[in-house]
Design brief:
about 290 residues, two-stranded antiparallel sheet, about 25% strand, elongated, Rossmann-like_a/b/a_fold
């Protein structure tokens, strides 16, 4: 793995927003930014009959323009560029797995708040072995203005907490100098007996207390490792994707996980992560884990 932040560039407004976000992230990490343009003649009708030399000229021009913009906006940024022929998913996965972080642009949902993660983005996230961040165009501040303040929000499953996710979130909060907001949502078990009316309040209180204790236990070693990071714990009854989308309104970054799956068939992005990708308004980091 090379210590770079890699961002996919295609000249779109979304990819330029991702490039700006990635440039700031690379500066914070003190590592180079890699701009990657992937060309596939079979992906779009307009490029199907374009010869490779012409396509390379278009791609390298896009990379040069983007590099100049980023250097003007981010002083001291180290930038490398790459034009790669091939299928976008394969090329982005290879580049992402060789990088410290992969950043992709994502379209908005029109009049609704949230992401529209395209087929390429979803396919890359399903296969990638390294963390990736999806960025919307509105997530990037105007030139001269710092990235908006806010918490790093971590969605955590307290009964199978991922060390990779937790470390990524704590490290990000430490890097940004902000608070870490850890959110665990739980739902009432479907069946607890024929007559719930009399015991429901007590049962809800007991479950809430049990989940809160599990959350505290999961975070205990990490708060010791990162004592300078303030942590806000939120444990409530609700739906995880919906609660994370709500928390993203004031967030700097939302961190979710994706369990690595070896099977070739079936879903590779869980329901919560899929929902977060489509409805969060903040940049979303997806951290793969076993």
């Amino acid at each position: 793995m090379s210590r770079t932040v890699t961002v996919g560039i295609d000249g779109s407004r979304e990819s330029l927003a991702a490039a700006n976000w990635a440039a700031e992230e690379a500066l914070r990490r003190g590592i180079p930014l890699k701009l990657l343009h992937v060309w596939s003649k079979d992906e779009e009708r307009r490029t199907r009959w374009v010869d490779p030399a012409t396509a390379r000229g278009w791609g390298e021009r896009t990379l040069r323009i983007t590099e100049r913009r980023l250097r003007r906006r981010h002083s001291g940024l180290s930038v490398v560029t790459a034009w790669v022929p091939g299928y976008p998913v394969d090329a982005l996965c290879a580049a992402g797995d060789a990088s410290e972080l992969l950043v992709l642009g994502s379209r908005g949902l029109g009049g609704l708040a949230g992401f529209l993660a395209g087929s390429v983005s979803l396919a890359v996230l399903a296969r990638l072995q390294r963390p990736a961040v999806l960025v919307r165009a509105h997530n990037v501040p105007a030139p001269g203005k710092p990235r908006s303040a806010g918490d790093v929000v971590l969605g955590l499953d307290v009964y199978s907490p991922s060390d990779e996710m937790i470390e990524f979130a704590f490290t990000a909060a430490e890097r940004y100098g902000c608070r870490l907001h850890v959110l665990h949502s739980w739902q009432m078990p479907a069946v607890y007996g024929p007559d719930m009316a009399g015991v429901l309040p007590t049962l809800l209180a007991d479950i809430g207390q049990e989940r809160q204790q599990a959350l505290d236990d999961a975070l205990a070693p990490w708060t010791e490792k990162y004592p300078a990071v303030p942590v806000f714990r939120q444990c409530n009854q609700g739906r995880a994707a919906q609660d994370l989308a709500e928390a993203s309104r004031d967030a700097r970054l939302v961190v979710v996980g994706r369990r690595n799956r070896r099977a070739r068939i079936g879903t590779h992005i869980g329901a919560v992560t899929h929902g977060v990708l489509h409805h969060c308004v903040a940049p979303v980091a997806v951290v793969p884990h076993d």
